[in-house]
């Protein structure tokens, strides 16, 4: 196991508000990691910071021992919301853009993913349902060949049956050496593929633990363990 992400004493403020405080986290290669927390806990912010999209933080974030922003972007594939594209842009145009911008984008892997996720090349963003747009984002994110994949709430609009298939499929699509971090409000659905769980609460990392350890030591499902840590909190329903 090699260290892939190292975060030391990270503090992040936005508009005079502390979003993340004194975050320390080490992630190693070859793991599936769940990122959990209540609404507004800071999951998206943490992913944006690791991906190099959010800037102006205090502390240190290194990916594969590098803190260089260009190197970080080359090592991390982050599920982008596709906000920069006009509604009339077709899927094939977006794929072409990804191919041009990311030298690690695999056209072969994208075609496999697109087939599995039932994406139609000619469809324009305007006609895509929420679930189909999420499928496209998953395909684009996983078609890159990188060390770290960050998937932020990738399945919220996808029906339960398809979610299960996609979650299992992910194990085949990414290299064994890569690490995948997924944030989700449906922990029970991803629990069986997770090696580790990271929980954000109180603007920092409350827990970072292996799922095996949770199951053996706590005798609780991953979902119930997460809920037990938030029990009694007004900010979690
Ligand atoms: N531009 C901003 N200015 C000020 N506060 C912000 C800004 N963007 C996000 N926040 C705040 O940062 C906190 C963390 O937000 P973030 O989106 O990272 O949470 P999250 O855990 O991903 O939430 P959710 O589960 O609802 O997606 C929230 O309290 C949010 O209101």
Automatic annotation (TrEMBL):
Keywords: ATP-binding, Nucleotide-binding. InterPro entries: AAA+_ATPase, ABC_transporter-like_ATP-bd, P-loop_NTPase. This is ABC superfamily ATP binding cassette transporter ATPase. Residues 5-227 form the ABC transporter domain. The keyword Iron-sulfur does not apply. One of its GO terms (molecular function) is ATP hydrolysis activity. Gene3D superfamilies: P-loop containing nucleotide triphosphate hydrolases (3.40.50.300).
